[in-house]
Each structure stands twice: as structure tokens, then as C-alpha cells.
Design brief:
Blueprint: E1 39-41, E2 47-49, H1 52-60, E3 64-67, H2 71-76, H3 90-100, H4 106-130, E4 132-134, H5 135-151, H6 161-169, H7 185-212, H8 218-224, H9 229-260, H10 262-269, H11 273-286, E5 292-297, E6 301-303, E7 306-308, E8 313-317, H12 318-322, H13 325-328, H14 362-377, E9 382-386, E10 389-393, E11 398-402, E12 405-408
Parallel strand pairs: 2-8
Antiparallel strand pairs: 1-2, 3-5, 4-12, 5-8, 6-7, 9-12, 10-11
Helix pairs in contact: 4-5, 4-14, 5-9, 6-7, 7-9, 9-10, 9-14, 11-14
């Protein structure tokens, strides 16, 4: 595949004409900088970070801690002697990451390859049998089952774990860390009931099975580290939402781009694995599933010349940082694999985060997406019946794509 410099026109365009590049499909215009400044302070005193350099500096700073993404909920849960890896800091976090890194290395992911391929074949078989399906349903089943193998959630008492995971994630969440919440008692009780079901039907049976016989998965590791049931449940929730829900959305977003753009689809299907991954990384750069990352300043900070007092909340706009022309070059809102990026900047830019909290499952997410999408897109008569509706999820602070109908056979594709 030819490497495409940032200067000039990127060759992958919509079929509506040579100058009709496909714009981002999930971008939230209401979250963009109003002044063009790298950092803005809103009416609530939240520091809104828009530029790549400023956002990256925050993510790499040891003087901040995680906020958002259920961190407040985890902090309030009783029975947690050991904080979840997603919310721990300092040497505790580094030690936990070192201990669990082996589950996400390219070597380990290669061992998952036959399992991922078998799952993908089964899902594509469902499409072939039915002729028309919701693609977001297939991507959910793939993402949940792959993550379940890594975490160890493979001993459920009843089928339907994907519904139990999504029921919890769809149950609400803070509109923003520290913001006043208005939640009905009924909604809170429903959330607790969803959590109880997930524990009783999925997590507890997995713990019991692995106490009898350890396996090479995260739950077995946590048992060896003397984690209690509540701590294991919390880790399963964080890995579940981070690894299952986000990968599901990216698969749909990538398929949407590739089906809308015949040239890019052809390039993808005829490329090497490295080149295919470059295309997926570029789509993810443009369509980061988590559009906002939150951090809390543990001490006074200076970011991009801006003084930020201790205790301040920082909201990092990932979609805007990922399309910062000073970092990614010209035409930042176009899919253009092979961009020339600054040293140390990876192709997805900040879509997987950065610093010590960078997503540990980044390679696995791209690998499973690629395995599935290759099998899906090889069908020449695959078409979009109904493009997905774009929603916003308050728990993961990212987009949801729903009602994405695809079919095999003749018919006019929807755009």
C-alpha cells in the first residue's frame, strides 16, 4: 500500500465526486472549542482541553488522576482494599499493569487468533443465513466473547452476558464528574439490579470455577493476588465496559467508513495486515470511541502556559485533539492512512489514550476488528440497508451506533 503524505489530497473519497471526502461520521460539533484556544475554562470551572499537545501533556503528567468513567462509583463501593487498575495511580498502578500486560501482548493476541476467527466465521454465517442483520448486534457478540476469554468470564450460568453488560452501561452515568446528578430512585435500583445479575450469573461462577482450577486469564490472576469478590467484580466491570463496549462501537464505525468508501474498502481488502491495521488506526483517529477523557489535578499544574489549580477537573476532547492539524498535518478530517506524524505519536493519536493509563488492549481491539471486518467485507454484494443512528453514552463518554442494518444481495445502498 502506498504511504500517503499529509500534503495534498488524500486519495480516498466518497463516490459522490473526487473532492467529496467523507467527513467524520460521529463528531460532536457541540463539544468543539468556541474560541480556538488550546484550553478553555467553562462556567463550572472545568478546564476544557482541545489541542493535541495540551491533551497529551495532561495524560502523561503524574500529577493528575483518573476522573469519570465510573471512577466516582468505584470510589464509593465498599469492600475495595485494592483499587481497580483503571483508577489506581503511582507504583500501585504500574505494578498492576506489569502483572497483567502479558494478556495483551502481540504474542498472547496471536494465541487468541483461532478463537477470534471461529467467532467471526460464526457471526458472518449468521449474516449469510439471514441475509440481513443489525451489524451492531454482531459486533457486540464478537467484542463481548473475545474480552470474556481474556478476562475469564466464560462460566456464565445463563447465556446473554452481552445484554447484561450493555444493560449496565446503558443504565446512565454522570453527565460529568462532579456535576449535580438527578436520578430517580427507580433508575438507581435498576442499576443495582443489573450489577447484581452480572455478578450472580457471570462473575461469581467464573470465580468459583477458577478457584477449583486456575486458567490463563485475568480472574485467575486476581485470585492469586488475593482479590476479593467485590474487587474482581469491579475489575470485570472496568475491563468489560472498556474492552467490550468500545470495541463494539469501533467495529461498526470502521465498517460504516469502509462500506461508504469503495476505494478505501478495496485498498483494505488487498492490503497486508500491517497496512490494514494502518487503515483501521486512521479511522479510529478520526472516530475515537471515547470522545472525552477526564482527569483531576492532584497538584497545581502548568499545561501549555495555563495555570491549573490543584483539585481542578480537566476534560480532554479526544476527537478535537486527534484532528489537530499541528499534530496530524493537513486535511485532518479525512481518512488518510500513512500520515507523517511527529516522533512518538502513534497512528490512532490519542484514541487509546496516552501515558500510564493508555489502553492496554489496544492491539487486541485492532486485531479482532480486522479479523471480523476482512470476513465481512469480502462479500462483494454486502450493502448498507439502514445507516446507524448516532447516540452518545454518558458512561463511556462516547458514541453509540445503533440500527446499522446490512444485507447481502442486490439493492441500492443507503448513505
Amino acid at each position: 500500500m502506498t504511504q500517503h503524505p499529509t500534503e495534498g489530497t488524500c486519495p480516498f473519497h466518497d463516490s459522490n465526486g473526487p473532492d467529496a471526502a467523507i467527513p467524520p461520521l460521529t463528531r460532536r460539533e457541540d463539544q468543539l472549542s468556541k474560541s480556538g484556544a488550546a484550553i478553555e475554562i467553562d462556567g463550572r470551572g472545568v478546564y476544557r482541553v482541545h489541542s493535541f499537545q495540551a491533551a497529551r501533556a495532561v495524560l502523561k503528567d503524574e500529577g493528575v488522576r483518573q476522573a469519570g468513567f465510573m471512577s466516582e462509583m468505584a470510589a464509593k463501593m465498599g469492600g475495595l482494599k485494592q483499587p481497580p487498575v483503571l483508577f489506581s495511580e503511582g507504583e500501585t498502578h504500574h505494578s498492576m499493569r506489569r502483572d497483567t500486560a502479558r494478556y495483551f501482548t502481540p504474542t498472547s493476541v496471536a494465541e487468541y487468533q483461532p478463537m477470534i476467527a471461529a467467532l467471526a466465521d460464526d457471526l458472518i454465517g449468521q449474516l449469510a443465513a439471514k441475509g440481513e442483520v443489525n451489524l451492531d448486534d454482531l459486533s457486540l457478540k464478537l467484542a463481548v466473547n473475545v474480552a470474556a476469554q481474556v478476562v475469564g468470564l466464560t462460566s456464565s450460568r445463563l447465556p446473554g452476558m452481552e445484554q447484561r453488560i450493555t444493560a449496565f452501561v446503558d443504565g446512565g452515568g454522570d453527565s460529568e464528574p462532579g456535576a449535580a446528578q438527578v436520578r430517580s430512585r427507580g433508575a438507581a435500583l435498576k442499576q443495582q439490579a443489573n450489577l447484581a445479575l452480572f455478578f450472580a450469573l457471570d462473575v461469581k461462577p467464573a470465580i468459583q470455577a477458577r478457584k477449583k482450577e486456575r486458567r490463563d486469564d485475568l480472574i485467575s490472576h486476581l485470585i492469586d493476588k488475593n482479590y476479593n469478590d467485590v474487587e474482581i467484580l469491579t475489575e470485570c466491570l472496568t475491563y468489560g465496559t472498556a474492552g467490550m463496549v468500545t470495541t463494539r462501537e469501533f467495529i461498526s464505525a470502521a465498517a460504516w467508513h469502509l462500506l461508504k468508501n469503495p476505494e478505501l474498502r478495496s485498498e483494505y481488502l488487498h492490503a497486508t495486515e500491517k497496512e490494514r491495521h494502518a487503515i483501521l488506526h486512521e479511522i479510529l483517529r478520526l472516530e475515537p470511541v471515547v470522545s472525552t477523557l477526564y482527569r483531576r489535578a492532584e497538584q497545581d499544574l502548568t499545561i501549555d502556559g495555563q495555570h491549573i489549580p490543584q483539585g481542578s477537573l480537566l476534560a480532554l476532547n479526544v476527537q478535537e485533539a486527534n484532528s489537530d492539524g499541528q499534530a496530524v498535518g493537513e486535511r485532518p478530517l479525512e481518512v488518510c492512512p500513512g500520515r507523517s506524524l511527529p516522533r512518538g505519536v502513534q497512528a490512532p493519536v490519542l484514541a487509546f489514550g496516552d501515558g500510564h493509563h493508555r489502553c492496554p488492549g489496544a492491539f487486541l481491539a485492532i486485531k479482532e476488528s480486522d479479523v471480523f471486518l476482512r470476513r465481512l467485507l469480502i462479500w462483494n454484494d454486502l450493502r448498507i440497508v439502514t445507516p446507524p443512528r448516532v447516540h452518545y453514552n454518558e458512561v463511556v463518554k462516547g458514541y453509540e451506533l445503533r440500527g446499522f442494518r446490512v444485507a447481502l444481495g442486490a439493492g441500492a445502498a443507503a448513505h
